[in-house]
Write a structure and sequence with these properties.
115 residues, mainly alpha, 2 helices, 68% helix, elongated
């Protein structure tokens, strides 16, 4: 397998990971919508024994949401650094390659460019 083919396989795998992350986020959004609807219909001021517990429950939900967002941010930063390392590994491409090294060859890919 050539280096270029391996890079394209890696990029394809990263695209699939991003698609799966998008599917997970969509599922999380649906779950959050269900929780929101349930909360609006079932949680009222008289549902809690005191004001402190009334504040604790929503703060707990928000903490969980922040943890999910932080986890996704860390994962995306990791994927970004891996992709940046792959794309910048071909330093011979220079500015003309847009950071892709010599992954896509020196020209635009058209045979007529040489004429």
């Amino acid at each position: 397998m050539s280096k270029e083919h391996a890079y394209l396989n890696i990029l394809d795998a990263m695209a699939k990971i991003q698609w799966n992350v998008a599917m997970m986020l969509e599922a999380k959004a649906l779950e959050a919508e269900k929780v929101r609807n349930w909360s609006l219909n079932h949680l009222h001021a008289h549902s809690f024994s005191d004001h402190e517990t009334q504040l604790e429950k929503p703060l707990g939900v928000h903490d969980e949401m922040v943890e999910v967002i932080e986890g996704l941010t860390k994962m995306e930063n990791g994927l970004c650094s891996n992709l940046r390392a792959i794309l910048s590994s071909g330093d011979s491409g220079g500015e003309d390659s847009g950071g892709f090294g010599d992954l896509f060859g020196g020209g635009s890919g058209f045979e007529d460019d040489e004429k």
